[in-house]
């Protein structure tokens, strides 16, 4: 689905990403792990179109998407979430979801004034979809709450909801578990799983929480110092000497080790 | 007591007019992130477009309102496409200075086309209604209409912002620009709508000013300061705050004539703006849009 082909990026003398290649298979939940400073987020930003790579190519279903800006990628079916959740804080949760789908008649200057009926119909279709998303993520009880008042975990669920409002082919999740309590983490993880199996969404996940990675992701790619050092199922990677080395040597062993 | 109530009425009328301008200034700031200095001259041009329309077709003065609003909305979108769109990605200060230049261009154009003399929508004097309460109040029918129509326009803007997809997209853009862009909200279309509403409301303010007094080429320019004061008072970038801000500034300006000469009315707006920026720069309201 997403092919990362020999991508490199340097910031001055720092080689943030060096000749990384891997593929995010259709229907997979692919994990991307590595110690802090390994280049995961840079690679994510390159795939999401925020940073142009120095060399290499990114393709989405065979189409070259290297250097295409994020808002156009969104319409091509590639959605990303942020490590720190973004939301429209002064709008309700329901409204946050309603603004997402683009290209509707209501946004056309002419239609909004002269084709009320058509706009109405589309709006009610969007509303149905919003209710469905709220149900799926079990955040219906906060639908009329201002999004700014949600907890960190609820905001992450809202991020997922935003992806659900589009016909996203692939979703890039940047640390969906960061700063989320255990209970909500379970719900986020379950939602990702269900979206994957029931709805066929493809995910690529950066995460530091090894429990989350091992329950969700197959395969997992490991980066260290800008390079891809290992790939495979999590169980195998745990035995991999190079991977252990990277985490222990990187001095960020705490959460990752065992 | 009589005098106070009378001034209160004038204050509400002035407040309604300022609100029309301040909502536009506030929305333009929220979406485009610059202070639109040509807004006062948008008001002037809107008023004159209305005047041109009613004198061409010999219609009653109230037709100046819809024709001025539609005409000015179109001109505002045109100005955006010709000027502001080209410099959208530059620093806000460049946009601000450009809008100042646009203000001068519009004012000069108004003077060239319509001359610099005073003009009015209707000849003759309108007699006010006299009410036998509080020792006799005088209310001009025009004033009643101005307040009622301004109220209806505010309700219309509110419904637009909360009930329509485009209105929600507009609020989303002023709330979190980055997220709006990556979730595929059509930025250029939102901006076009912002100018349609901002231009239309500016024209309404201009026509109201023209109905209340008369039309002259710097009418909008002199109203710009209180309009900005109203927008800042309500928290710039928040249209709902602009309504409250407009009313407070309008009433304060009229009430001030009880204690200081009427010529200092604009200074009152200025003083409120300065105090507000020192004491509470985020405006009266937080998180209302």
Topology (elements, then pairings):
The complex is a heterodimer of chains A (258) and B (289).
Chain A: E1 2-11, E2 14-24, E3 29-33, H1 40-47, E4 55-60, E5 63-64, H2 70-75, E6 78-80, H3 93-98, H4 109-114, H5 116-137, H6 152-164, E7 170-174, H7 182-199, E8 202-206, H8 210-216, E9 220-224, E10 227-232, H9 234-239, H10 241-249
Chain B: H1 2-32, H2 39-57, H3 64-82, H4 92-114, E1 129-131, E2 137-139, H5 141-163, H6 165-175, H7 177-182, H8 187-212, H9 219-233, H10 239-255, H11 265-279
Antiparallel strand pairs in B: 1-2
Helix pairs in contact in B: 1-5, 1-6, 1-8, 1-9, 1-10, 2-3, 2-4, 2-8, 2-9, 3-8, 5-6, 5-8, 6-8, 9-10, 9-11, 10-11
Helix- and strand-based class of chain B? mainly alpha
CATH class category name of the largest domain in chain A: Alpha Beta
Radius of gyration of chain A, in Å, reads 19 Å
Number of DSSP-assigned strands of chain A: 10
How many strands, what sense, and barrel or not for the largest sheet of chain B?
A: 2 strands, antiparallel
Shape of chain A: globular
Q: How much strand of chain A?
A: 15-25%
Tally of individual domains of chain B: 1
The shape of chain B is globular
Fourth-level CATH superfamily of the largest domain in chain A? P-loop containing nucleotide triphosphate hydrolases
> Helical element count of chain B?
11
The CATH architecture term of the largest domain in chain A is 3-Layer(aba) Sandwich
Average predicted confidence as pLDDT of chain A: 84
Protein chain pair with the most extensive contact, residues per chain: A-B, 31 and 26 residues
Mind telling me the CATH class of chain B?
A: Mainly Alpha
CATH architecture group name of chain B: Orthogonal Bundle
Question: Which class of secondary structure composition applies to the elements of chain A?
Answer: alpha/beta
Compressed to H and E, one letter per element, the order of chain A equals EEEHEEHEHHHHEHEHEEHH
